[in-house]
Amino acid sequence: MSRRLSEVFAQTKSANRAALIGYLPAGFPTPDASVELMNAMIDAGVDAIEVGLPYSDPLMDGADIQFAVDAALSAGTTTDVVLDVVSRLDGERAAILVMSYWNPIERYGVERFAVALAAAGGNGVITPDLTPEEAGPWLAATKANEIDRIFLVAPSSTDDRIVTVVKNTSGFVYAASTMGVTGARSQVGAGAEALVARARLATDLPIAVGLGVSTGAQAHEVAAYSDGVIVGSAFVRCIRQAADLSAAVAAVRTLAGELAEGVHR
Amino acid sequence: MTTLSTPVVSGHYGPYGGRFVPEALTAALDELDGAFRSAIVDPNFIARLTELERSYTGRPSPLTRADRFAAHCGGARVYLKREDLNHTGSHKINNAIGQALLTERMGKTRMIAETGAGQHGVATATAAALLGLECTVFMGEEDTRRQALNVVRMQLLGAEVFSVTAGSRTLKDAINEAMRDWVSTVERTHYVLGTVTGPAPFPEIVRYFQSVVGREAREQVLEIEGRLPDAVIACVGGGSNAMGLFSGFIDDPSVQLRGYEAGGDGVETGRHAARFAAGSPGVLHGTRTYVMQDEWGQTIASHSISAGLDYPGVGPEHSWLHDTGRARYEPINDDEAMEAFALLSRTEGIIPAIETAHALAGAMRVGRELGSDAVLLLNLSGRGDKDVATAARWFGIGAPEGIEMSEGR
């Protein structure tokens, strides 16, 4: 079976653009609303959805995502709810990924989580606090269940580290644009392009850039040297600022549309 | 130097430990690991550390025989390792000075730290002042309230205190915020983790700098008693004072290792910080260890009258010592700890930190269990000045006329 993520990146490449990957925490502001919001993002041109699994101690996340995750946890978003959200997304038109800190997956059961995610229609998992060295059982479980596992590289990664990370990654490589936590920034880290170039020497996998991208213009700039553009906090922020759910859906749609324009080269 | 009978294989203690951190921090942890390993075989580094321990911290700390307190411990002979007499009032200075020297060695100019009770924050702020480094301390808002005295001390020492309003507003959230700062400023900043937890190599580094406690105590008790103690006793939050003491005796099978965690209102109430009594293995703050968590792996907020023990995780080596049976861990409830707090104050003229009072309550149990021939050695990890307002409220002691009990309320 061909992997869904490979298909997505093959399609976007042939259309001479980068893939647009949009993040929202499952359950924010409620489980049902998060499904509606993420399907609206897909409708407006997002190629892959990153479904955040809310965790009590999100130490890689800035204020916007911390807020959203707290709200999702208060709304009762358990791992089973996240899997239900995944199953209700439009997987025909977008690849569906989960972004999770490691402990909830370990607690659920590594193999059990991989099986359940595949059954729910999930295509891959991004694990921001798991490095390949600690990932033994996860490597086996994702392989057995044909789920892509996405590890991160960062500006501080040595060339040797990049080789280790990409060797264990499938689907695409997540390049963190900057040394810092998630959150919209006025400028995407200057080190991002250099990092992508270093990663290219180590892999033929697509490379997507995340952290700090919030506007169509930034997406355009990043799309010029990468294969994918990841946007999270900006979506969260427009939901926080909306008066009600229908306004939030409209705002998310508008932002996704602007970003989808931006990723054309 | 200390022996390492616990198997440390690339930062793992059996199934525990390891490094669960964003890739962005891997390079900094590797750099720290390298700096640490070169430092501890560098005679100049060791000489500087030893000299500061002697002339600045005031080491060696004495061993005090506590006979009047011991009468409440089944008549066993009880020795107190007086870390409360160190400069800044607790064992935390041992690690802070060591890591400050590592900071300098790595060419970094800024230190950050998390703190619960404020003792590690004060120790780090002190070391920063001594070496001319910038310092920011992250402290949960709840803790800044109950440990207001230490907030002022840190500010007087020139540190910036960042009050953390996320999550449960206690130590775990302070660590989250320190990690967020660190990943953004890692080029010039060293994160001085205050206890034997976090991603490798932190548990090993902190144990190393605290092992002076166990090394001295072993020599001292052998000199006085001519034999090893039957049990060594310490309170366990993250577990640095316990690991420091235990490290001196871990290879002596006749010596029981006893750790006391915070039972809060009682383990059965759910309001506690009893990771071993009520937690399960998981990953928190970069390491695999016993964690208070729900069925979905979400961290459960801990509760304790003692800010320094109010933490839902514990150092990974303690988890290993627990599973192998080499050390035994039990919860001590708030009321038992406060009873021991009052008892030591009145029988020995030593007001202990409330954290330490948990170990004292443990000694009362162990002494009754082992009987009057037993020799107990307890780490008196800190002094109680910072806890005076909390204790006054607990015991309903009013301030004398004209004296403002300004803290907390």
Counted by DSSP, the helix tally of chain B is 15
- What is the CA-based Rg of chain A, rounded? 17 Å
Stretches with pLDDT under 50, minimum 5 residues of chain B: none
Largest sheet properties of chain B: 7 strands, mixed
Largest protein interface? A-B, 39 and 35 residues
- Secondary structure class of chain A reads alpha/beta
What's the order of the H and E elements of chain A?
Answer: HEHEHHEHHEHEEHEHEHEHH
Number of strands of chain A: 9
N- and C-termini, Cα separation of chain B: 46 Å
Strand content of chain A: 5-15%
CATH architecture of chain A: Alpha-Beta Barrel
- What is the helical fraction of chain A, as a range of percent? 40-55%
What is the residue-mean pLDDT of chain B, rounded to a whole number? 94
Q: Tell me, briefly, the overall form of chain B.
A: globular
Number of domains of chain A: 1
Low-confidence spans of chain A: pLDDT under 50, at least 5 residues? none
Q: What oligomeric state is this?
A: heterodimer
Pathway (chain A): Amino-acid biosynthesis; L-tryptophan biosynthesis; L-tryptophan from chorismate: step 5/5
Keywords (chain A): Amino-acid biosynthesis, Aromatic amino acid biosynthesis, Lyase, Tryptophan biosynthesis
Catalytic activity (chain A): (1S,2R)-1-C-(indol-3-yl)glycerol 3-phosphate + L-serine = D-glyceraldehyde 3-phosphate + L-tryptophan + H2O
EC number (chain A): 4.2.1.20
